[in-house]
Amino acid sequence: MNCKHVRDLVLTDYSDGQMPPERERRVEAHLAHCASCRALAQKVRQDLADPLKSAKAPAPDAFVWLRIKEKIRQEAAIEDPGISVADMVRNFVQPFRPVAVMACLFVMLGVGLVIRQNLSHQQPYMAYMMGAEAQGDDVSAGIEQYFL
Ligand SMILES: [Zn+2]
Predict the structure, then answer these.
(1) Which letter does DSSP use for residue 133 in this model?
(2) How far is the CA of 8 from the centre of ligand 1 (A)?
(3) What are the pLDDT digits (tens) for 49-59?
(4) Residue 35 class from Cβ within 10 Å (0-12 exposed, 13-18 middle, 19+ buried)?
(5) CA–CA separation, 58 vs 110, rounded Å?
(6) Residue 58: how many CA atoms within 13 Å on its side-chain side?
(7) Ligand 1 mean position, distance from CA 42 (Å)
(8) Of 23, 75, 79, 128, which has the maximum CB count within 10 A?
(9) What's the pLDDT score for residue 100?
(10) Three-state SS across 5-26?
(11) pLDDT for the residue numbered 27
(12) Is 14 within 8 Å of 24 (Cβ atoms)?
C-alpha cells in the first residue's frame, strides 16, 4: 500500500472501523513504519473520531415523540384497515364458487325451458312478433285469432 492509498483509507473506512480485518492489518503495517501516515491517523482519531464517540443521539422531545408515534399508528391503520365487509363476503363465497356456477347454469337452463314452453303456447303471437310477414302468412288474421 502506498501513502496516498493509506491516507484515503485513514480518512474513511479505517477511522470508521468499517474495514475488513485483512485490509486493516495492511493499513496498520504501513502505519507502523510510515511516520507521516501515522501522524495523520493520530490527528484524525484525535480531532474527528474521538469527539464523535462520546456524542449521544439526542432524544426527541416527549411531545414530538408522541406525535410521531401517533402518526405512525394512523398511517399503519390506513395501510391495513383490517378486514372489510367485501373481504368477508369474498371469503365466505370463495369456497362455494363452483357450486354457485353450477346453480346458475341450472337456473338458466330451467328458465330457458319455461320460456320455451310458454313460447310454444304463444306461437301465433310470437310468429307475428318475429316477422311472420316475411314468411307470407296472413298476419292480421293470425294476431286477431290469437287475441280474440
Ligand atoms: Zn505512508
Answers:
(1) G
(2) 11
(3) 777 777 777 77
(4) exposed
(5) 76
(6) 3
(7) 13
(8) 128
(9) 82
(10) HHHHHHHCHHHHCCCCHHHHHH
(11) 94
(12) yes
Amino acid at 77: A
Residue matched to cell numbers 503495517 = 29
Task: Tell how far the Cα of 147 is from the centroid of ligand 1, in angstroms.
Answer: 115
**Residue ranges per structural domain of the chain:** 3-54, 97-147
Q: Which residues, at least 6 apart from 147, have a Cβ–Cβ distance to it below 8 Å?
A: 125
> 35 C-alpha vs ligand 1 centroid, how far in Å?
7
Which candidate, 125, 147, 128, 148, places its Cα nearest to that of 137? 128
* Grid cell in block for residue 48: 474527528
Per-residue pLDDT of 11-43, as tens digits, reads: 999 988 889 999 999 999 999 999 999 999 999
Using the mean position of ligand 1's atoms as its centre, give its distance from the Cα of residue 30 in Å. 6
b/e map 57-69, b = 16+ CB within 10 Å: eeeeeeeeeeeee
Mean pLDDT of 82-103: 80
Task: Could you please state the CATH topology (level 3) that the domain comprising 3-54 is classified under.
Answer: Arc Repressor Mutant, subunit A (1.10.10)
pTM (2 d.p.): 0.38
